[in-house]
Design a protein that fits this description.
The protein is of the alpha+beta class. The protein is built from one helix and eleven strands. The protein is elongated and about 55 Å long. This is Carboxypeptidase regulatory-like domain-containing protein.
């Protein structure tokens, strides 16, 4: 009986270590993680640029991401689950993801200077169909997305 207790204890520790490693390596969601930075013409993209990662293989579910003020993103599988399915993914922008800032209004109630431009206005239209195809592996993945204006 003593040997069986030691084996069960050792197996329990091994199983705990494997589960902990899986949770740490996959962001705790059971899925690989994907983070990176989006740049436009070499500068960090503004907050709010939305990206879709669609699996190439049939039957997969897309993940989405949105940039912060430094252009950084983290893929979200669902509203409350971070991560992305492993495999090849088509990457594209989601239209309407960045709101054009309001113009500055002067004391007379009229806009001052030219109206602000949408930071995505000069990007190739193909970016809304596909920017590139990336490979996502198990564990932590990092992929920067460099966008270039036309």
């Amino acid at each position: 009986m003593h040997k069986m207790t030691l084996r069960a204890c050792g197996l329990s520790k091994l199983l705990s270590a494997v589960l902990l490693a899986a949770a740490v390596g996959c962001g705790g969601s059971g899925l690989p993680s994907l983070t990176g930075t989006v740049t436009i013409d070499g500068k960090p993209a503004p907050a709010g640029v939305a990206i879709q990662f669609s699996p190439i293989a049939e039957g997969g579910s897309p993940s989405y991401a949105q940039t912060d003020e430094q252009g950084k993103y983290e893929a979200q599988f669902s509203f409350n689950k971070t991560g992305i399915q492993p495999g090849e993914h088509s990457v594209k922008l989601i239209p309407g993801s960045v709101v054009t800032p309001m113009p500055e209004i002067g004391p007379d109630g009229r806009p001052v200077g030219p109206p602000p431009k949408n930071p995505l206005a000069n990007l190739p239209k193909s970016y809304w169909e596909e920017i590139e195809v990336i490979q996502v592996d198990a564990g932590s993945n990092t992929h920067d997305i460099a966008l270039v204006s036309e």
